[in-house]
Amino acid sequence: MLDGKYEAAVGLESVFRNHFHALRTGQRISGSYFDVRYYPGVGTIHFFPSNKTLIDRMNRLVGNHRRWLPPAETNAGTGFWQQFDQAEKLDKAFRTEVSKDCKRDGRYYHFDPFWAIKYGGESERERGHTLLTQAMSTVLANHGIDPDSLLDSDQNGVRQLDWDGLPDSHLAFAS
Fold first, then answer.
1. pTM, entire model
2. Is 92:142 a contact under the CB 8 Å cutoff?
3. pLDDT digits (tens, 9 = 90+) for 57-69
4. 8-38 burial, b for 16+ CB within 10 Å, e for fewer?
5. Residue 7 has pLDDT above 80, yes or no
6. What's the Rg (C-alpha) of the chain?
7. Measuring CA to CA, which residue among 53, 16, 52 is closest to residue 31?
């Protein structure tokens, strides 16, 4: 396991098996690594991590495995790790910045760039990419992060996010 223990003192299976009735009534139950709460009104279960360090280790392990992070032998620049460490804060700022450019009419957006990239025609996708790229550049600049910083070990002038060898046009926005 991520903390060097083979088995959790109070695992998720134990939480569900021993506290099923309490969970069904909406109580929040604690395990070794997660608190769990069932929301009966909507029928969803939420997991709340109890140890930020272990979650960070898990995110890095999964990120390396899925190739979302640069290979270990590559020293990523400070801008990359600033983005990684501040992801939740930057995501909120990014969505706020996007909403400034996407006016709402009641509950609906006049233009939703996330929808446009996934479902729109060519001109809508291009407009969506442009809007999201501008919003991300603004947010990163506001936080003092240079998105074009080089990898520390880069010898060939490859930009930070090009460590997989693909040109920028093959990078996709996460939504």
1. 0.51
2. no
3. 888 888 888 887 7
4. beeeeeebeeebeeebeeeeebebbbbebeb
5. yes
6. 21
7. 16
pLDDT digits (tens, 9 = 90+) for 119-132: 999 999 999 999 99
Query: What is the distance of C-alpha 127 from the center of its chain?
Result: 23
Q: In this model, does residue 14 exceed pLDDT 90?
A: yes
